[in-house]
Amino acid sequence: MSTQPTLAGTTGTSNNASSTHPKIAIIGAGPGGLTLARLLHLQDVPFTLYDREGGPAERNQGGTLDLHPGSGQLALKVAGLYEEFTKRARFEGDCLKLVTANGTVLLDEGNKQQGGQEYSGDPRGPPERPEIDRCQLREMLLNSLKEGSVYWGHKLCKVQAHPPVTDDGNETYTLHFTYSGEDIIQGPFDIVIGADGARSNVRPLLSTEKPFYSGISMVELWALDVDNRNPWLSKYVGSGSVFMYDQGRAIFAQRNGNGSIRVYVCVQQPESWFDDCGIDWNSSAKAREQLVDGYFSDCADDIKRLILDSCDEVVLRRLDMLPIGITWEHRGGLTLLGDAAHLMTPFAGEGVNSAMHDALELADAIIHALKLGRGLDGISEEIALYEKVMFTRSQEKAQETWNSLSGACFVKDGAETFLKMLASKGRGGTLVQR
């Protein structure tokens, strides 16, 4: 059940904290917003966390993701959640099969065992990037907060800025939501943090930039209970992932922790492709057949079966992005993290990791200023420094993502190009003919 805070901005945690603390609102209970909330909670910094969804299980959270040592995993360590993460993570998920459109297996790292105990003689040792289902990550983060920390069902419509009351004061902000069919106003808040994703309603107060189409449309297909219902698909994908890259098209098949596999079929097509391609998206069976006939008919049977055998759900996703190197002029009391700040496509696996890294550095900035007793002006200066570092880091990750998309994933002989990229990073590099 959703909880409605008072107009004064009741805090989601640490309600007994000192009144000298700034009133902080976090918009969005995704991985970035929840990580930030956890880190502030550990230091008894009060906040109010809002999310538009009616509850944590209202919407499918997506498939699996790998958390990187220097970003996502690091944030969990500082948040005191790394041990819990290792219990939920699937170390066996960090293995890759790389194939070409004609079915040639270029790289097959084999199946790794649960818990990271055995690695098939892999000279790299234990996996550095274990997989965790997004729903598991969110549950773990939510469980680390006090009950009632998230105010669900609050759809942010507008952030309204108010001029300072005194000459030496700072702007404050009220938040306009729809909640249970009614328009409500929350605030005023001293600090508003937009962790509200691609269509952020906080971003317009900082930047005029909007997400735009990356050129890639993705069809997400589900295959449930694969061990029992489709042993071939289960064996072909194994415990990790299968990647196929080719000119203008790519396929990713990934094992999830609930006995399912998700297959992501990507095509380089115009923005209106979902509407104009003639595929009957209302019929799962027909859509999969038309997708194969129209775009993968020259592929090996194994590649076609990845699409045809994933018959439980069809989800259409247009992949958008923000400009590489997006910045904004610092404005006291406002900032962004995650997709709201630097939306990327998934072709380097940096989205959630970058969001959690943002949360770690932003929490550190706020906490550092508070411990020094620097007040709102000091917090604003620390947030400005956070933004400066985040701009540089996110530009590097966004450029890496774009280079992967444009230089490997959707080019002729893309699988071979991707193998070379792996080899340059000390992974793979041996051609396996199957």
Automatic annotation (TrEMBL):
Pfam families: FAD_binding_3. The keyword Flavoprotein applies. Residues 24-371 form the FAD-binding domain. Residues 1-21, 108-131 are annotated as: Disordered. Residues 8-21 have a biased composition (Low complexity). Keywords: FAD, Flavoprotein, Monooxygenase, Oxidoreductase. PANTHER family: FAD DEPENDENT OXIDOREDUCTASE DOMAIN-CONTAINING PROTEIN, MONOOXYGENASE ASQM-RELATED. SUPFAM superfamilies: FAD/NAD(P)-binding domain. It comes from Terfezia boudieri ATCC MYA-4762. Gene3D superfamilies: FAD/NAD(P)-binding domain (3.50.50.60). This is FAD/NAD(P)-binding domain-containing protein. The keyword Lipid biosynthesis does not apply. One of its GO terms (molecular function) is FAD binding.
